[in-house]
């Protein structure tokens, strides 16, 4: 196609760009410099200091402002003739419905989470608009192209599950730095500063070890009457790193084939010196300097004289950091205690977690980490590289142009590699055709193994429809009978009816119970998503299946189930619609759909930030 034709295609097309972060900033710049003239940008976030190193459209003065709006203004400064509409909003909100998506020639994603990517995938399928999807992790990146009916959709292939660790490794037998960081984040951090009602086990125990009195354990971490923050920090320190290790050591059998941990007490680390006098130049009086910290990120490391987050600190320095961070939380962030959850952008939280993890690591003979590295592990961060984002943004635009020129044959999914393969850092691959077993684009039914007498409709809505199937506003149907509908526009009368049903067990639901052999439909009208789910009653679930539910493909059905299904199908087909109630609760039991293909639905990743990466 000629260069002139390219320009026309580019200038006349209307592009939706979702995400104005690392990839998004690069992409918006590349789009306008390529000649695109009509662009919508959606991003729900505001600018943070940590974005500035790579999201080059933003400056320090923009911190706290909308990414979409600032990105628009920054680009208009050098391309004032371009029409850019900025939406500071979640792409999942109802204003961005199928009709909204239909106005675009193409959708380009620069997102950082699976949930939003799945949502956009469904809207692109529903609106029949091509999607270019992307992701980067450090040096690695990828760009994929999705065209309804012609290529795989974003959900055609299962995504890898995030790494999890056995509870006993975290609580009792850590052997790697990451085990100590997960412990510090999920146990002491939450016990001290998070919701104390959540069950948690802080003791370092191995099976058979003495268990401490749970109530005593819970109240131990409360600030006692007239207790200073300094005394509290010291008391908690000795408990976490000293007494709990001593308890664990009593279980001698556990240490026969393992290196025994060493208990750490404040007195051993600081000797006779006053640890609180050691705290920087302030003589430990963090409280007195309150105004100094206002407006700036509260930090314990500067107070104890630690400057370089990439330096390896000693045990004594980590102990000082631990004590100071606990004191600062108590003295200056009292209002937040009891509500905090770990956030990688919360400096004090990162300092506490680094110090606690390092002290535990030292106890167990595991290498300690710098704060920089500990933050990366705690926040599941693979540090973003601006150049990778720029390369990926360039590739997105190249694929977009091919799609707009209707040259699908030339489109490629491209991987950006860390190390050259056959002298190439970019690896283009042929795209796959749609997966006929995909429950999103090929509408293959699924199977839900569930204990129908203990699981409630709410469990199905929250854990299956929302979490596993990524429905934003799920509706659960049984035939034409609506069991539950969610969304902003449900009238109060219907909402009350659905609410009453939500806590009912599946097998007690009225007018039609959900029991073995029944087929339900899970829908999301906004996403135009609909999935048939065949219910299979099961009573024995393993510990890992504590929800008493397992969603899978049709291979979960045994031959007996399939026979039963066929019978049910035949019976349902021959039966006429059944009217249960006089008014609107008319129940028409629809036929069970043909259950012919086999597909195993892999677990979906649950972590907050998932980049699609298949390199
Ligand atoms: N549901 C959503 N709706 C709109 N924008 C979204 C949604 N989910 C994620 N985003 C945006 O996608 C962008 C992804 O950018 P990026 O991966 O660089 O993440 P970041 O939050 O800017 O940086 P980091 O996570 O590294 O601190 C973010 O700006 C984020 O606000
Ligand atoms: Zn698909």
Automatic annotation (TrEMBL):
Q: Name one GO cellular component term.
A: cytoplasm
Extract the GO molecular function terms from the UniProt entry.
ATP binding; metal ion binding; SUMO activating enzyme activity; transferase activity
Pathway(s) the chain acts in: Protein modification; protein sumoylation
Transcription regulation as UniProt keyword: no
InterPro entries (UniProt xref): ThiF/MoeB/HesA (IPR045886), ThiF_NAD_FAD-bd (IPR000594), UAE_UbL_dom (IPR028077), Ub-E1_IAD_1 (IPR042449), Ub_act_enz_dom_a_sf (IPR023318), Uba2 (IPR030661), UBA_E1_SCCH (IPR019572), Ubiquitin-activating_enz (IPR035985)
Give the span(s) annotated as Disordered.
Answer: 274-294, 596-615
Please list the residue ranges annotated as the Ubiquitin/SUMO-activating enzyme ubiquitin-like domain. 448-541
Q: Which family does it belong to?
A: Belongs to the ubiquitin-activating E1 family.
> What name does this protein carry?
SUMO-activating enzyme subunit
Q: State the organism named in the record.
A: Marchantia polymorpha subsp. ruderalis
Its lineage opens with:
Eukaryota, Viridiplantae, Streptophyta, Embryophyta, Marchantiophyta
């Amino acid at each position: 196609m000629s260069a002139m034709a390219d320009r026309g295609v580019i200038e006349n097309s209307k592009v939706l760009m979702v995400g104005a972060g690392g990839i998004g900033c690069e992409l918006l710049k590349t789009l306008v410099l390529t000649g695109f003239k009509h662009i919508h940008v959606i991003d729900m976030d505001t600018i943070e200091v940590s974005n500035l190193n790579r999201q080059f459209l933003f400056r320090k003065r923009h911190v706290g402002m909308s990414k979409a709006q600032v990105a628009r203004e920054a680009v208009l400064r050098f391309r004032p003739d371009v029409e850019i509409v900025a939406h500071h909003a979640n792409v999942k909100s109802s204003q961005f419905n199928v009709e909204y998506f239909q106005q675009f020639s193409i959708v380009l994603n620069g997102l950082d989470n699976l949930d939003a990517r799945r949502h956009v995938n469904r809207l692109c399928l529903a609106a029949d608009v091509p999607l270019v999807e992307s992701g980067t992790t450090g040096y690695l990146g990828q760009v994929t192209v999705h065209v309804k009916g012609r290529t795989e959709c974003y959900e055609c292939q299962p995504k890898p599950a995030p790494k999890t660790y056995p509870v006993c490794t975290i609580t009792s037998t850590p052997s790697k730095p990451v085990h100590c960081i997960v412990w510090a984040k999920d146990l002491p951090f939450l016990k001290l500063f998070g919701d104390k009602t959540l069950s948690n086990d802080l003791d370092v125990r191995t099976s058979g070890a003495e268990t401490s009195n749970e109530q005593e354990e819970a109240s131990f971490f409360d600030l006692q009457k007239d207790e200073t923050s300094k005394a509290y920090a010291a008391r908690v320190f000795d408990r976490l790193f000293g007494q709990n290790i001593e308890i664990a050591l009593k279980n001698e059998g556990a240490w026969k084939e393992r290196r025994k941990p060493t208990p750490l007490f404040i007195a051993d680390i600081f000797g006779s010196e006053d640890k609180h006098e050691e705290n920087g130049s302030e003589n430990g009086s963090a409280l007195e300097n309150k105004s100094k910290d206002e407006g700036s990120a509260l930090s314990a490391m500067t107070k104890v004289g630690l400057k370089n987050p990439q330096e390896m600190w000693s045990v004594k320095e980590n102990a000082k950091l631990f004590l100071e961070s606990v004191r600062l939380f108590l003295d200056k962030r009292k209002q937040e205690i009891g509500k905090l959850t770990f956030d990688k952008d919360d400096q004090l939280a990162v300092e506490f977690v680094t110090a606690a993890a390092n002290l535990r690591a030292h106890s167990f003979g595991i290498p300690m980490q710098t704060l920089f590295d500990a933050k990366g592990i705690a926040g599941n961060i693979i540090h973003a590289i601006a150049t990778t984002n720029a390369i990926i943004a360039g590739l997105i635009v190249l694929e977009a142009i091919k799609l707009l020129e209707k040259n699908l044959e030339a489109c490629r999914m491209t991987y950006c590699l860390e190390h050259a393969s056959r002298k190439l850092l970019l690896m283009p691959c042929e795209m796959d055709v749609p997966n006929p077993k995909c429950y999103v684009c090929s509408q293959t039914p699924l199977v839900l193994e569930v204990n129908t007498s203990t699981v409630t409709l709410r469990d199905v809505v929250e854990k299956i429809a929302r979490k596993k199937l990524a429905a934003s506003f799920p509706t659960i149907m049984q035939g034409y009978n609506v069991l539950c509908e969610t969304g902003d526009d449900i009238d109060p009368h219907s909402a009350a009816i659905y609410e009453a049903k939500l806590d009912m067990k599946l097998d007690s639901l009225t007018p039609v119970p959900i029991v073995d052999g029944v087929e339900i439909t899970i829908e999301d009208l906004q996403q135009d998503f609909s999935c048939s789910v065949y219910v299979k009653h099961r009573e024995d679930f393993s510990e890992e299946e504590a929800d008493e539910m397992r969603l899978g493909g049709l291979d979960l059905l045994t031959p007996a189930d399939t026979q039963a299904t066929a019978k049910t199908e035949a019976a349902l087909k021959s039966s006429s619609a059944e009217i249960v109630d006089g008014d609107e609760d008319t129940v028409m039991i629809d036929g069970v759909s043909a259950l012919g293909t086999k597909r195993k639905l892999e677990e979906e990743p649950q972590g907050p930030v998932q980049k699609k990466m298949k390199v």
